[in-house]
């Protein structure tokens, strides 16, 4: 019920900026090339998020920092609810995704994976690493209904604190990368997907799950009303009726709640982005209602077309 970093994953760590090798000291990690230093927190989490002077921070990065604070507040509210039935409903809503529609195994990187709930659905043969920007993902688990619903959380979880745009990991190291409900939180989604491509092995799979607008030729755009209803239901599930009604009143009064998402992708935009970065779509699956605007995509890193030819995108 705490973070760890097994030697197999420790050996994969590189500098998140220049991708050079690193030297491990007792309480810090130093890049052998650029000299960047990275520390381990009191919670036992190695922190590989680059630091920038405030006067150099770009607008997108500032938006991301603000959004992370909003996400932390939201996570704290949900944890306070600690609704066992809601956790079971969450598991049931994605069970088909991981047990019949998609099968993840091998060496798996979970970008934005937090405390590692995905392990609930993984086979014992899988090796799992979570990368997340939040350092409080293990707080309060000891007595929570979350632990009751997800017994896997009682086991130590491999975790690095890092940004998707600057993964501190060697190239061609993972069989699968999962990104669930995180692509719309990235300050640089295109850069993040290039990073994912870099760390995937040839033919490796990227699994994305995200709320999108639009759909395929056999799936019409949902009405604005149905979209609002879906969001209201999600708010009720996460924070309760009072919070949902309070937000609805604010919206009706023209005072929308602060949106902690950086990007609201449409279905076509997501497919275009994957095509740009040379991923080949293998399978598309829409989550069952009431989350049927959430699409899951398995995309493969394209293999070289001829022997000795470099992969596209490099």
What features would you describe in this structure?
- By secondary structure, this protein is α/β, with parallel strands linked by helices.
- It has a domain at 53-218 and 260-301: Rossmann fold.
- It has eight helices and twelve strands.
- Strands 1, 5, 6, 7, 8, 9, 10, 11 and 12 form a nine-stranded mixed β-sheet that branches. It has a three-stranded antiparallel β-sheet with strand order 2-3-4, with no helix packed on it.
- Helix 6 (224-239) packs antiparallel against helix 7.
Offer a concise description of the structure.
With 314 residues, this protein is α/β, with parallel strands linked by helices.
Name of the top-level CATH class of one domain: Alpha Beta
For the sheet with most strands, the description reads: 9 strands, mixed
Gap from first CA to last CA? 39 Å
Write down the overall mean pLDDT. Answer: 84
Shape estimate: globular
How many alpha or pi helices? 8
Oligomer: single chain
Counted beta strands:
12
- Element string (H = helix, E = strand): EHEEEEHHEEHEEHEHHHEE
The H-level CATH homologous superfamily of one domain, spelled out, is Vaccinia Virus protein VP39
Strand content: 15-25%
Uncertain segments: 217-224
Helix content: 25-40%
CATH topology of one domain, what is it called?
Answer: Rossmann fold
Please write out the topology.
Elements: E1 3-4, H1 7-10, E2 22-24, E3 28-31, E4 37-39, E5 46-47, H2 59-81, H3 84-101, E6 107-111, E7 127-132, H4 145-149, E8 157-161, E9 174-180, H5 189-199, E10 200-211, H6 224-239, H7 241-252, H8 267-276, E11 279-286, E12 294-301
């Amino acid at each position: 019920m705490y973070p760890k970093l097994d030697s197999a994953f420790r050996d994969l760590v590189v500098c998140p900026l220049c991708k050079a090798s690193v030297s491990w000291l007792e309480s810090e990690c130093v890049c052998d090339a650029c000299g960047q230093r990275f520390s381990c927190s009191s919670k036992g989490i190695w922190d590989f998020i680059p630091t920038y002077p405030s006067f150099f921070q770009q607008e997108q990065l500032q938006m991301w920092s603000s959004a992370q604070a909003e996400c932390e507040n939201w996570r704290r509210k949900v944890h306070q609810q600690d609704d066992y039935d809601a956790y079971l409903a969450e598991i049931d809503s994605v069970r088909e995704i991981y047990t019949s529609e998609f099968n993840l195994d091998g060496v798996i990187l979970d970008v934005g994976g937090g405390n590692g709930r995905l392990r609930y659905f993984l086979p014992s043969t899988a090796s799992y690493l979570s990368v997340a920007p939040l350092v409080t993902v293990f707080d309060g688990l000891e007595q929570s209904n979350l632990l009751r619903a997800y017994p896997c959380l009682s086991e130590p979880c491999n975790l690095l604190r890092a940004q998707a745009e600057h993964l501190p990991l060697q190239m061609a190291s993972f069989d699968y990368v999962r990104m669930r409900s995180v692509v719309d939180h990235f300050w640089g989604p295109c850069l993040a997907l290039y990073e994912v491509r870099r760390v995937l092995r040839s033919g490796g799979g990227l699994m994305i799950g995200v709320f999108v607008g639009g759909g395929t030729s056999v799936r019409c755009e949902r009405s604005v009303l149905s979209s609002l209803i879906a969001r209201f239901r999600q708010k009720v599930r996460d924070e309760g009726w009072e919070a949902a009604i309070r937000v609805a009143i604010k919206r009706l009064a023209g005072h929308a709640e602060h949106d902690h998402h950086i990007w609201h992708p449409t279905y076509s935009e997501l497919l275009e982005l994957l095509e740009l970065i040379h991923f080949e779509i293998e399978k598309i699956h829409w989550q069952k209602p009431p989350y049927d605007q959430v699409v899951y995509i398995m995309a493969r890193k394209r293999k070289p077309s001829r022997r000795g030819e470099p992969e596209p995108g490099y």
